[in-house]
Amino acid sequence: MMGKAKYKVLMIGPDRSVHGGISGVVNNYYAAGLDQKIDLCYIGTMVEGSKAAKLVCAVRAYFQFLRQLSKYDIVHVNMASDSSYYRKSVFIRTANLWGRKSGPGKRRGKRIVIHQHGGNFPDFYGKEIGDAGRRRVRKVLSMGDAFLVLGTAWKEFFGTIIGAERITVLPDAIRIPASEPKQYGVHKILFLGRLCRAKGIGELLTVMPELREKCPDVHLYLGGIWEDEELKDQAQAMTECVTDLGWVSGAAKQKLLQECDIFVMPSYFEGQSVSILEAMAYACGIVASKTGGIPDMIIEGETGLFAKPQDTRTLADRLLKLLAQPDLCRRLGENARRKAAAEYSIEDNMRRLMAIYESVNGSGETD
């Protein structure tokens, strides 16, 4: 018996080029060196573009998965809801068939880690599929040797499906930047994410005239990919107080997070939000919806302020409060940074992930 070897992990999820939360999480793992700590093969199962392009990617990914499966011990599946669930269920079933028990007390083949990221899973599970569909979902999700969720609310929800005792909370994480002096009272509001109605962009644009009336120098910066042409047209008609940045990343995103004193995320639903974690790490005053995994990050009046989803009144009130009170914005931002450093560093997250791999892989030793 040799000593403890690197875990052999076959991970699947959206292509790393996709503009979205799961890809951001995976890229954070790579940036932090997860592929140096384990024997990691990542397969992208979805790309942006036409339905045909998505189908071609999914088929290619599945055949690549079949070619690689025998070489790896753990299959780590990053999953959301809707089409993401249907795609990933095929991979999960395949890995599960490969890893069926063969003999008393013995299991050969694959351990399965299901990592659930989808903020819209309750609607998908409760409203979009029938009883037969829900039975199939329960069966597929129960195939995981570990089931990871992003926050305590998600543990409660998925606990009703597969049992809370089977679920581990593993929130998203980021690399915490070095602390730099930050100016408050500059009245720069930042949003980073998908630019669509479900992210609350309609409500955000609606409140901008009121914010500008009471705070004339306020400016909203929108960083992301547009998914709604009507909202895009609305934003482009407000160039005096709204700047459309397109997708931002790397040094450009870091500069924005440092220069903007307020961050807003008025989503209708949310898995967790890496963007909020980034805003916390850069000590922004944050206004966010109280939904999904966000309440684990934002403590009302301590690390940020809550607005009700789809409610322009509370959104405007909370933003005006931060615009009018730079000292409050500073206090909330500094508290948020401390919380991010203490609870959401990528280094700590990887240590926890390695412990999960060890728990599903037994001793972690190889012959």
Describe the structure.
With 367 residues, the chain is an alpha/beta fold. It has helices spanning 21-31, 34-37, 51-68, 83-98, 121-128, 131-141, 152-162, 201-214, 229-236, 250-259, 274-281, 294-297, 312-324, 326-343, 346-360; strands at 8-13, 39-44, 74-79, 111-116, 146-149, 167-169, 188-192, 219-223, 242-246, 262-265, 285-289, 305-307. Helices cover 46% and strands 16% of the residues. The strands form 2 sheets. It has a 6-stranded parallel sheet with strand order 2-1-3-4-5-6, sandwiched between helices. It has a 6-stranded parallel sheet with strand order 9-8-7-10-11-12, with helices on both faces. Helix 8 crosses helix 13 (312-324) and helix 11 (274-281) packs across helix 14 (326-343). Residues 363-367 have low confidence and may be disordered.
Write the layout of secondary structure elements.
Layout: E1 8-13, H1 21-31, H2 34-37, E2 39-44, H3 51-68, E3 74-79, H4 83-98, E4 111-116, H5 121-128, H6 131-141, E5 146-149, H7 152-162, E6 167-169, E7 188-192, H8 201-214, E8 219-223, H9 229-236, E9 242-246, H10 250-259, E10 262-265, H11 274-281, E11 285-289, H12 294-297, E12 305-307, H13 312-324, H14 326-343, H15 346-360
Parallel strand pairs: 1-2, 1-3, 3-4, 4-5, 5-6, 7-8, 7-10, 8-9, 10-11, 11-12
Helix pairs in contact: 8-13, 11-14
